[in-house]
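Crash report, auto-generated. Payload:
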Amino acid sequence: MIHSLWMNDQMLFSCSGCVSACTLVSFSTVLGCHPCFRLNMFSKGTKRKFSDGGEEISEETLVGARMASSYSLQRQSLLDMSLIKLQLCHMLVEPNLCRSVLIANTVRQIQEEMTHDGSWQVVTEAFCSAGQSPSERLVATEVLCRSREQDAEPKLFSVISYEGCREEEVVADETLCSVSVSDAVSNVCLAGSIGQCWEKSDVETDDEALEDSRLGSGEDEEIDTEDEPSREGPKTIGQVFGTFEIKNSSPGPDSALEELFSDVDTSYYDLDTMLTGMQSAPKMGPYDLLDSLAPSHGSSSIVSAPNCRSDLNELDHIMEIIVGS
Amino acid sequence: MAGAGGGGNDVQWCFSQVKGAIDDDVAEADIISTVEFNHSGELLATGDKGGRVVIFQQETENKSQPQCRSEYNVYSTFQSHEPEFDYLKSLEIEEKINKIRWLPQKNAAQFLLSTNDKTIKLWKISERDKRPEGYNLKEEDGRYRDATTITTLRVPVFRPMDLMVEASPRRVFANAHTYHINSISVNSDNETYLSADDLRINLWHQEITDRSFNIVDIKPANMEELTEVITAAEFHPHQCNTFVYSSSKGTIRLCDMRASALCDKHSKLFEEPEDPSNRSFFSEIISSISDVKFSHNGRYMMTRDYLSVKIWDLNMENRPVETYQVHEYLRSKLCSLYENDCIFDKFECCWNGNDSVVMTGSYNNFFRMLDRTQRRDVTLEASRESCKSRQVLKPRRVCAGGKRKKDEISVDSLDFNKKILHTAWHPQDNIIAVATTNNLYIFQEKVN
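Recovered output after restart:
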């Protein structure tokens, strides 16, 4: 019963990447005008176990749960939209820094809130554990915090969208939170308190939102340490800003060249070092993101050589400029 | 009888002129990107996305007769900026004119500063209505005469000719900004001016092009920590040591250049505490200030954020003295406006000559006049429908929800592609210039 009701809610929202205008109006209503809503929704309702299908569920809990699911879905959608906007900077003309900063701050805000809710754990878990699965549409893109060498703060991973997650891990009992996903990705601390236990409604919401997609095995697999990947990883916010400094240049081994660029802002390259710490992150170029999002239910594939592809894109772009076509 | 008005009686606005192509098919290069009256109001300059500057001049002959309206006609057109290519970054530099600022007139010629994203240029606009005739060595058409045929000498004289307006670039201030220039402001000392980009503000001398002083730098050491950018900056109209700059977080900083060479530390910080009941994910975006303008008397400044206009007393930092809602009915539509990027539109605002009324633009080619003394506001529209000469503009109303009354337009019918971002008010008279996408409307006060 609950399942079907939530399915109905799900129907209100099409794929997270492309939402119709009328839907957005209802988004605004929730996201724009009811700020205290989030606090209220978590104070209502009771925790339910998955196995307790036969229990009486109060009307209030139901309504609260539905509102909770709609709010978090809408928030997720806003997050997706924001990340797309950040990624789609057209690089022929220099993108607008003010706009990028504002969108990045919005993303940060959403992630902070999701961290507090504990719903961020679903995202990070799915992210961490899905690295091996080929059918996974998971796209990890942004790293917002400082590089890992500097601080002990948990890093926040933002996931644009993901279809399917390991149901066995997500839908579980309260001990889910204690699953040491961090073993898989040693450099990452899951944001938020691991000991937090979610309400069942929240968990199942995400499950439903993912439309019962299942993934392969549920065990945490060892994530191999990759060699230093190409610099053209998923663009982080810093990378976006970093492009304003200098673009398309790799650290030159030539010392004379180094001198020439000695006053160039090198945060771009530091970013790259940090990115390599994201071992489980499937590296995708900016356009792959779009591909993976646009068809909401289509089959997806992780581009096998995203690095080469984005390099090729750049090469094409440069050739275009030179040729003047 | 056109006073510096606005206060006292209700001003009725009439259509005067419209400039620009009539058809709806807008060429990208024709999109107007800035509008500015000069200090006397005689000249009106517009810049467009194609890098051109068009200057209109007010006809002076009819000013003696109050019934007749002075019209603005094209005075000069020139290509200010060309598209460039930054080879190091492999990026195009747009030729769009972001701002035009007139210099106070010192001699017969007019000077203005125009800027695109990276380069500021000082243009001299001069008139030539006489030309020398009667050279000894040259024919009238310029060919040289055979020296052996010259038997007499004469002194060349100036004879009248058709008026020719020449625009020539006198200075080019380049290579000082890594980020996109959003503001320029001429100092009251008549020697210097500032230019502001997203992260830095530079101080220039009008004569010196090969160097500038950096006076504000908010670039963090680590670009990943960037959360705030500069959105606008302006010099105080009288105090040559004072300037303000606004940020994307809704703060305004007033800096005194006497305090230190680098004005990273502000003298005053103007910020209104956030209203917790209105908090949403879009709160920061809509608090981002798109324009800041000092009042003519230098006591106040006005800021424009997405939904409101705020008037600040320079002596009070913790909140504005006046707040006006421009289009509050958009608050429930913020998510849609975020999706279609309209939420990032940068609206400008302007004062009238005696600081009693302020004006700013909105969507659907609406613009708002906010009367500070009478605490009244009116919404007007710049449209082709009300283009009859001297036709009085009818106030427009937007229906936020519920039952739509006659003559009201509902929020969902608003055309968000028709936005009025740039407006200018004549420094003395009630003449306003309102730029729609590619048209410039001039409205004047109705004179009975």
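Post-recovery validation: The radius of gyration of chain A is 21 Å.
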